[in-house]
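Figure 2 data, in text form.
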Amino acid sequence: MYDVVVVGAGPAGSTAAKFCSEKGIKTLLIDKDKFPRDKPCGGGLPAHVLKRFKNIVSEDMIESYSYGGTTYSSSLRYKIEAKSDEPVTAMVIRKKFDHEMVKVAIKHGADFKCEAKVVDIEILNDKATVILDDESRIDTKIIVGADGVWSIVAKKTGLKQKNNPIGLCVVEEYEVEEKIMDKFFGKSREGYLNSKFQNIAGYGWVFPKKKHLNIGLGEIEYNSKNKKKKTNLANIYKDYVSMLKEMKLIPEIIKVSKIKGGALPVFPLKKTYSDRILLVGDAAGFINPITGEGIYYAMVSGQIAAETIQKALAENDASKRSLSIYQKSWKKDFGKDLKLLYWFTKQQRKTKSERNFRIMEKDPTFNQLLVDVMTGDLSIRKNKWKILRKYIVCLIKDIL
């Protein structure tokens, strides 16, 4: 009998396991894959990850730092440049980063079991049971679902919403000699974003690391059930790489070969808890709807889940009434920011993006304000009126 079984050993699950274990809670962390394992991802950690989790994220987990970048409009007519004296993003190799995070959880006392696929769960009055594909059963007091956008925990507990829209991405990470990376991206490792490339509802990215170049495309479609035409991101990806070469933004030696695909949530589930159940990270739908970044919210939700579990176990009450404080806590911490980012994204979709790029290109101050919000240096909730006032002023200047 464990106090907690955490299903899924990504950043959300490992963080939850780490904080639970160091509180003296008997914890088992399990994952269906063998570690180390890779995951389709850009591999960028925003600045607020490093600030909040500086005692977890160590230097040996980080491949390099990025000090800025350039975002192009879909027509390539406008571009927005952002540079900083401080790192705006820490770049990681997800295969290494996730494995190191698991090691941190183990170091603090968690048990770890890989190649353990969960196929079902049972919730009883006195316990919960995790059932694996080899028919073995693990009893626990509380289950944390950290098993991604296709979460089996969310599905089996009825927390997964039907027809919930998802985002899609395709990505490939290329190993490149450091001297070539220095030539193209400098020591500051400034990357590129391309908004709405070939009219996809998202963006393309180029994230340079120390000896790796991560290139990807992400599409977040809010009304996917009403979408008439399917987007072939794999084919668009090849066109994207070709365009980057034509613009001489990436080395000619880059050859598309093993594109990986992945899914990501669009917005949080309506309910992220139930009797003896908490959902964290992608399983709960936590993601920045503008950038597609989710590691920060994964780790924060893991931390909040551990605090909720500690209180529930102390009171010997793992009912949904007791665990409901988890949802109140994450909403207070970052939920309002996600809601505003989602609203902001919807408004952007209704306006002409080329005009927005033209406005931002003309006003470096407004541009920097938005960059600080996107990288987590500023809270959109605390600065929403400042952003709105600045946007109105820029809009009037553009009209005049």
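Caption note: The chain has a mean pLDDT of 89.
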